[in-house]
Amino acid sequence: MKLNWLAVLVAAIVHWLFGAVWFTVFRVPWQAGIRMSPEELQTYMAHPNFWPYIIALLCNLVLAYVIARVLAGYEGYGLFRGISVGILIGLATALAMVTEMAFELRSPQFMAISAGYPLAGCIVMGIIIGVWKPKADMTVAR
Length: 142
Hints:
There is one protein chain. This protein has helices at residues 5-25, 27-33, 38-46, 51-72, 79-103, 108-131. The protein is mostly helical. The chain has one domain (5-131).
């Protein structure tokens, strides 16, 4: 099984950057759902903690790896195969998040924003990994 490690890395970074756009676009309703007072949020923003960003990047790297492994199990790569695998992995991730957030009694809007991010991000990663095929193995069988 041959994986394109550069595609995995690029897909993870793109997903990570996509998160910055996603949570900027949905900032107001998402912040309303995180259950932090404006004062707590202001304090956090004044002294940001970079660990969540590092953890997010590492998790995106694992998700990209899983997508690449699933794609490697197919005969060929391609746009639609990448999309379908991205939907599959993203849906599993999103549903796990929704299950947890339902027990936390989060609002449906917060759940949609929070769980929508990995679903959309996995589709983007599936596209990148699906269209960026690994190079053929150059070894000759004897």
